[in-house]
Specification:
By secondary structure, the protein is of the alpha+beta class. The protein is 47% helix and 17% strand. The chain has two domains: 204 residues, Metalloenzyme, LuxS/M16 peptidase-like (Cytochrome Bc1 Complex, Chain A, domain 1), CATH 3.30.830.10; 183 residues, Cytochrome Bc1 Complex, Chain A, domain 1, CATH 3.30.830.10. The chain is built from 19 helices and eleven strands. Strand 1 and strand 2 form a beta hairpin.
């Protein structure tokens, strides 16, 4: 966040709280659950002739099972490949060709993973047959047709993202193309086609190489999470394990889609220059086509209580990095607002205690901050602190100062003025997310999914207002315990630079 004039910023927040209260938003918002179970939210904003939307699927990498990590992300890639009417030159011929690809891949995969009696020559032959089948299927593909249709209709900022807890799809479009959007968006979830699946699987493998395997911080994060979570799927990398990425098939991805991409497990939020009375019949016409199915069962595994500190140390030629994380409850827990306040107080921005102590005053860290709700928030997760030492300092140098600030919040009540300032900044962060159609659509869909009511987005502000200094101290003492802590460090193998910076 840019630091602008403080007085003007606080004035903006005060105005926003009054102007963007729940009652005013309720007047502009229509919510409807279709007969198939799909929840649709339409919020009217007639400032410009455009609208933005988010389709949120209540499934992410946490829903994957052992041996199939990365499937949620893979289907996100597949959702841009179109349908049996978008992205194909001849669907009947392509369907036959794709079926042959799957049969050929299944035979090849069984042969190459055989634990005994593996025939290398036969395996190479089966691999060639699979690759030949893919080449034949590729002849029927119209590359990027889905994206091209969106672009030609004036759509912008088309994107998607797979997190641990959810998968979202979004873009913005001119209001006079609303029906085209409804057809196109529903089409890719009604009749998805898993074309070019194995090419995209290679793309994801490359993403993993770049973000994790070739990135010291990526490697540290992966080891940190696998150490922090011994049972819950938050400990499994969302991008997937290499062996899973090299093994799962388009058939596996389709099974994931059929289980989780059902209307009762999805929310669509639309914000912009849309008249709800006119939009709802169009939405029912197209999205009502999605077949009704029961919502998937809730996740079973709960992370057991941590009873001893855990540590991870990587020896790297990169700069040193220090992290420590503490288990905390899910976002729906009554203490969530207190964690938001603690996060802003300790670790968010240049006014936070960690920044002022480690970066500004002692100059032992170039960065000192935190993440509240990592790697997801739907289930019990982590409150994480991290620091990047300055040249001449090691990860060990920042621990004492970081722990001192953590202990301080456990032993001293936050002053009224500091608590008031922190609450203002937390509320400001929430309200800024409502400024854009895109940000508001995502928040509406997220809160509707997590709490079952989009109004909880606005009630969050009230919950933050009610946090007391006693709440902050209590939650800190319950959470920031050595037995609840996981530490991850990169120890640099570079020759140490002189303190104060290399010459």
């Amino acid at each position: 966040m840019k630091i602008i004039q403080k007085t003007m910023f606080l004035l903006f927040i005060a105005i926003s709280v009054n102007a963007q209260d729940l009652a005013s938003f309720e007047k502009k918002t229509t919510v409807k659950k279709l007969d198939n179970g799909l929840t649709v939210i339409v919020m009217e904003r007639h400032d410009a002739p455009v609208f933005s939307y988010v389709t949120l699927v209540n499934a992410g990498s946490a829903q994957e099972i052992t041996g199939y990590s990365g499937l949620a992300h893979m289907f996100e890639h597949m959702a841009f490949k179109g349908s049996d009417r978008v992205g194909t030159k001849d669907w009947e011929k392509e369907r036959t060709a794709l079926a042959k690809v799957e049969l050929a891949y299944a035979a090849y995969d069984r042969a190459r993973r055989a634990e005994t009696g593996r025939d290398e020559a036969k395996t190479r032959e089966l691999e060639k047959s699979w690759r030949d089948a893919m080449a034949d299927a590729d002849k029927y593909v119209v590359n990027n047709e889905f994206s091209t249709i969106v672009d030609r209709a004036g759509g912008v900022e088309m994107n998607a993202g797979t997190a641990e807890d959810m998968t979202i799809y979004n873009f913005s479009m001119p209001s006079n193309r609303f029906e085209l959007w409804a057809w196109l968006e529903s089409e890719r979830f009604l009749r998805p086609v898993f074309r070019e699946f194995y090419k995209e699987r290679d793309v994801v493998m490359e993403e993993r190489r770049m973000r994790t395997e070739s990135n010291p911080f990526g490697r540290l994060i992966e080891q940190f999470l696998t150490t922090s979570f011994v049972a819950h799927p938050y400990g499994v990398p969302g991008i997937g394990w290499p062996s899973d990425l090299q093994t799962f098939s388009a058939t596996d991805a389709e099974a994931f889609f059929r289980k989780y991409y059902v209307p009762s497990n999805m929310v669509i939020a639309i914000v912009g220059d849309v008249n709800a009375a006119e939009a709802m019949p169009i939405i029912e016409k197209y999205f009502g086509r999605l077949p009704k199915a029961p919502a998937p069962d809730p996740l079973r595994t709960v992370e057991p209580k941590q009873i001893a500190e855990r540590t991870v140390t990587l020896k790297e030629t990169s700069q040193p990095i220090y992290m420590e994380g503490y288990h905390r409850p899910a976002a729906t827990h009554p203490d969530n607002a207190a964690f938001d306040v603690i996060s802003m107080l300790l670790s968010s921005g240049r006014t936070s205690r960690l920044y002022k102590s480690l970066v500004r005053d002692k100059k032992i860290a170039a960065v000192a901050a935190g993440i509240n709700g990592f790697p997801g928030s739907k289930y019990p997760n982590l409150f994480v602190f991290y620091a990047v030492p300055t040249p001449g300092h090691s990860a060990a140098d920042v621990i004492e100062s970081m722990r001192a600030e953590i202990e301080r919040i456990k032993s001293e009540d936050v002053s009224d003025d500091e608590l008031k300032s922190v609450k203002t900044r937390v509320k400001g962060g929430l309200l800024r997310q409502l400024d854009s159609n895109e940000g508001l659509a995502e928040q509406l869909a997220s809160y509707q999914t997590l709490y079952g009511d989009w109004r909880e987005l606005f009630r969050e502000v009230d919950r933050i207002d009610k946090v007391t200094a006693a709440d902050v101290r209590r939650v800190a003492n319950e959470t920031f315990l050595p037995t609840n802590r996981t530490v991850a460090t990169i120890e640099s193998t570079r020759p140490a630079a002189p303190k104060g910076g290399a010459k």
